[in-house]
Specification:
transmembrane, rod-shaped, mainly alpha, 0% strand, membrane, transmembrane helix, single chain
Length: 56
């Protein structure tokens, strides 16, 4: 029975690939979200700061 439990709950190739898929997919989703967030919101503030500079 111990051999069955070791095989049943061990780290096999399918479990490792599933974990890697979740990690890589999660990182890609967060990177895409952050990139879009910076393009939509952070870009506008920096452009306005440069346009309204009173020292020029």
């Amino acid at each position: 029975m111990s051999g069955y439990c070791r095989y049943r709950f061990g780290t096999n190739e399918e479990a490792i690939m599933t974990i890697l898929l979740w990690v890589v997919g999660g990182l890609a989703a967060w990177w895409l979200f952050g990139f879009c967030w910076l393009r939509l919101f952070a870009g506008d503030e920096t452009e306005k700061d440069y346009e309204e500079c009173p020292y020029d």
